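Structure ticket #2291
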Amino acid sequence: MGNLLHPIILFIAGFNPLVFHLTGLILYSLCCILIAKSIESLGIKKEYALLTAILFAIIPSHEYQVAWIADQGESLVTLFLLLTFIYYGRNRLIALLFFVAALLVKESAFTGIFIPFLYIFIDNKKEKKNITYVKDSLIGLAVIVLLQVYRYFVIGGSPVSSGNFQNTGPLKWIANFLIYIPLSFIPPDNLEGILLSKNLTLFISVAAIAGTIIWYSIKSFRQLTGNQRKIVYMGLAWFIIFILPALPKMMRWYVFTASVGFTFIFAPLLEQMVKKKFFIGILTLVIIFILYSDITRMITWKESGGKMNIIVNSLKSYKGESDFVLWCIPEKYKNVPLMKLGVSETVGFAVNYNNPDIKSPLRCEIFSDNNFIEYEKQNDSVIVFILYNGRFKSIGGVSSSFIKTEHFSFADEGYKIEVNNGLVSD
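Resolution: structure written out below.
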């Protein structure tokens, strides 16, 4: 279903970027609205449910869901899972249909079979017996099995054949779980800058702020009623349930669905915290800072789009064969996706080839406007590229938020490539 979204937009509006971005905004906005509705249905006052949803909406770590067209699938699957959660308490058949829709968007939604068990925390009237939750989860499991049988015989392969399950293990799962918690709030480039920064003052300041928030949250939790605590437990369970499929491989956008759990955790705490006037002042300052960060980031996304237009327009002048090699494709600009995905589609659109055969063994990331690249052909078999204000990487290689000293070599597309990244003085 996720693969149908963009072809439908192309059929209706063509290559109109406004329609694609409007779709992303609509999906993200619907998720935020459903979060507010979900929280309100748990007994939280409407104004606090709305405030919690607004805070979720402006969290900087969600920029991909808003701005990156390739990540609209995360918003769509989260939308269907929220609808599954809401309707499970109203109409279990409709909830099942929404769960199937979520599975058809992304197979990682399979842990949605545990949504019935979330109601154990919030079903204060005990309208359903625990055996009912077990039965409904087994029905969801049966649907998953049927879809996997269809996949195996019709499409081919299985989820475990994905590259996400390569070079992974329990220790990596634990590490990823711990990293995904701050990634629910902080963009990875900012988190990497804090953790790897040699600025001790910055590290201590951030640690002090985080410690204060955790301390005050624990203090507020102790003042919650029994039912409010159950909502917090349910939010924690939501995070654990939907972070499980993301543990084998660290990807920043995988945490989006799971991060909804923190809204359930925060809503009852917020209801308790706002009783203190000083907290309202602190929250106001936090919102102003977040909005400033979001606007700054939005400008960077716009700049990235401008770079993309330059690349596409330069490719349009190409007149040649449909198979060629592109060197130093910029995957990111100032930590914002540029040509990380969709290289073949972008080039095909620019040069008017349906299925161009493209080789792009060497990629790069650029970190400022003042960047340029030098090219030198030493002989028929050796080419040297020098990139200023950026770093080279391989396809699928680890991204970085800043330039650092590194040396590695790899073979790809029939080429042997050696990379030396590092800081140089003027």
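Closing remark: The radius of gyration is 24 Å.
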